[in-house]
Amino acid sequence: MKFSPLVMMASALAVFLPGCGSSEEPAAVEKPAPPAPRNESPERVQFHTHADTVTALNAGEHGTVGAPGRTAQIRFMVQIGAFRDPHHASVVQGEARKRYHMPVLNDFLAGPGLYQIRIGFFESRENARAFRQQMRQDYPSEYSDSWIVQLKR
To answer: I need a labelling partner for 116 at 20 to 30 A (CA). Which of 16, 19, 62, 104 fits?
Structure first.
């Protein structure tokens, strides 16, 4: 079978020029939709390392207020744990704040890589000891390993 040059040229043009001379519309090429912008921020663990000294000095029921007219000498705290995991330390800190409505510090020690969780500001070791005993009675399984820390001045 022999084709005329005119037929061959028409078929070549049909290949190179789609849509010319045919009644069919070429299929639309769909571009993938761009990804939607992300409005959410990544999950972050919050750490608080400041102390609310006004609340601490007004917390008379926990033995933290000095005699009227003199500045309190804060010398002791109760340490309730030391943790390597920052999230766990933050959870323990938040739970202690809810339970006792007192300042709870989360201090990071870079050398050993520990987050120390400490509660209360006490003028005397006896006041800190009394508070620690109360904590151990209220939550024996959680604060049984707590200890008293003397602050350096």
So the answer is: 62
- Integer Cα distance of 86 and 113 in angstroms: 10
Q: Is the pLDDT of residue 117 over 80?
A: yes
C-beta separation of 87 from 106 below 8 A: no
Domain span holding position 94: 53-61+71-150
Q: Are 93 and 140 in contact (CB under 8 A)?
A: no
CATH number of the domain within which 75 lies: 3.30.70.1070
* Model confidence pLDDT, tens digit, residues 36-63: 665 554 454 444 444 444 344 444 444 4
Please give the tally of structural domains in the chain: 1
Neighbour-count burial for 6-31, b at 16+ CB within 10 Å, e otherwise? eeeeeeeeeeeeeeeeeeeeeeeeee
